[in-house]
Each structure stands twice: as C-alpha cells, then as structure tokens.
Amino acid sequence: MSILKGRDLRLGIVALALFAAGAASTRALDATTRVIPLLSTGKTVMDEPIVYPTGAPAKITAAIVEMQPGAETGWHTHGVPLTGLILDGELTVDYGAKGTRTYKKGQSVAEAISIPHNGRNTGTGVMKLFVVYIGAEGVATSIADKHP
How many contiguous H segments (helices) and E segments (strands) does the chain have? Predict the structure, then answer.
C-alpha cells in the first residue's frame, strides 16, 4: 500500500483540484440553460378539462396578438385548447356569468375553450399576448360567439 508524501501529495491535490474545476465548469455550462415553467395544467382557467381535437392531423399554431388600449377581441370560443403568455400590458377577459379575470405581463393562462369570452386591453399601452393553439388540421382556433 502506498502512502502519498510530499510531492506526490501535492500532485494528488492538484489533480483533484483540476478534476473539481473541470466538474465545476461543466456545471456552469449546464447553468446557462434554464427551463422556467409557466403553466402546467389539465384544465382551463374556467375549470374545463383540456381535450385535444381528434379526427384530423395535429396542428400547432403560435401567434403574437397585439391589441391597442381599449381594443376588444369580441365574444368568441375556441375550437381547440390554447395557452397564452402576456408579453406586455394587461388583458381583462370577461367570461360572462363566470366573471372577469385580468392578466398582466408575465402571467400565463390556459384559456377557456367552450365558454364564451371577450378580451379587452385594459392597460395604457399595447398589449402583446403570445398564444399557442394545440389543434388539428381544419379545426378553427377561434369561433365568433354571441354575448352570453
């Protein structure tokens, strides 16, 4: 059995330090990528179960919706599940008898699907919403509806 002494001990410590530095730099590299969860749910904001459309090839549509202050979407429903992230501004959504909800910059939502709603920019600047529709080929993402 060999015992490290003097120079051998110093070399062992240097080797260990280099190994640790290499591991640390790998960890630092991994730290350059982060996943920040925004939303994880099986239900919409109105407590509807999220169910994917069937009978057609899947189709994902991503968009940025921009609305001027005071602008409205008009009453509508959705033919597919969708999620949104407010990039800037403020959006107040009227869900009729189910009340209103206001979403601000940085907030995510799994929007109502079959419950009619109307979104309105209630902020002072342009509202920007990043939205992802999880749909199917030939299925409308938004459907005009009457006030409930």
Answer: 1, 9
